[in-house]
Design a protein that fits this description.
CATH class of the largest domain: Alpha Beta
CATH topology of the largest domain: D-Maltodextrin-Binding Protein, domain 2
Number of strands: 13
Distance between the termini: 47 Å
Length: 298
């Protein structure tokens, strides 16, 4: 049994497709299949159910779970051996919540590439809970989330506070105001994202869920919420980075009093490369778009 074979098995578990797994591992499909057959032979156990669809056997699931930890430990051994080398160099994995990922990548990736050209940042879009679990499980090196994790196994630092804006149809009475009182949203039909999005709870809290929040329409993305608002289905809140250069389909107004969400960078406290997180945070803070209505936390 080799680490390479375990990597192949994990690739199949992640893709549930031999062709895609082989592509992810940069090898041919016959080579991947042969190595997995060899692994099963060495373990004397079937790990993969091969048929019209690919799935793992119960033993396969157990082996994959342990294999992820083994490979993570192996990566950390390599990291310890290379700690004298350049920081933020090589592959690193980061999870970013869906309400932040598409808006942060266009400015964050070029900035990181400019400051750390040898960094190969592998991004995964996932919900907060999945990111926290993956960081703790060593599947991700870092996470960008919008709430304090409150987990002793994780180290967290605040990157910035991102202001919320009321998103209104252009013909809405509140659109005539320069700013919108939070209390004025309590009587509106406030559209929210589905369960699992932290911004859902933040929106409900700001807009007084007991009286105005609508749960009969639950979008899966901020862009869907924007479209629903433009169609006159209700109002919502959008974070600052989700604004476009020129708004024509909706009207955005700041809130009174102002409201914001706090973006955290998380990593494992026991990560041997944990000193890289402050370097990453420094680059991200410096690269924030000008006029993005952020409060940067040093």
């Amino acid at each position: 049994m080799t680490l390479t074979q375990l990597r192949y098995l994990i690739a199949v578990a992640d893709n549930l497709h031999f062709g895609r797994a082989a592509t992810a591992c940069a090898i041919s499909q016959p080579t991947l299949s042969a190595q997995l057959r060899k692994l099963e032979g060495e373990l004397q156990a079937a790990l993969i159910e091969r048929g019209a669809t690919i799935s793992l056997t119960p033993i396969g699931h157990a082996v994959v779970s342990r294999a992820r930890g083994i490979l993570s430990e192996a990566d950390e051994i390599m990291s310890i051996a290379r700690r004298g080398e350049e920081p933020l160099a090589g592959p690193r994995r980061i999870g970013i919540i869906p309400t932040l990922c598409p808006y942060v990548l266009p400015w964050a990736l070029p900035a990181l590439k400019a400051q750390h050209p040898r960094l190969d940042l592998i991004c995964r879009e996932a919900m907060t809970g999945a990111i926290i679990k993956a960081v703790k499980g060593r599947e991700l090196d870092w996470g960008l989330i919008a709430e304090e994790p409150h987990d002793p196994a994780l180290a967290s630092q605040v990157l910035f506070d991102e202001q919320f804006f009321a998103a209104l149809p252009p013909d809405h009475p509140l659109a005539a105001n320069a700013a919108v009182e939070q209390s004025a949203l309590c009587t509106e039909r406030v559209l929210v994202l589905g369960e699992g999005h932290c911004i859902r709870d933040q929106t409900r809290a700001i807009c007084n869920a007991s009286s105005g929040t609508s749960d009969d329409i639950q979008a899966t993305s901020l862009e869907t919420l924007r479209g629903l608002v433009a169609a006159g289905q209700g109002v919502t809140l959008l974070p600052a980075l989700a604004r476009r250069g020129v708004e024509t389909d909706i009207v955005l107004r700041p809130l009174i009093p102002p409201a914001a969400r706090t973006i955290h960078l998380i990593t494992r406290r026991a990560d041997p490369r944990r000193e890289e997180a402050p370097l990453l945070a420094m680059v991200l803070r410096a690269a924030l778009p000008v006029g993005a209505d952020m409060a940067i936390t040093p």
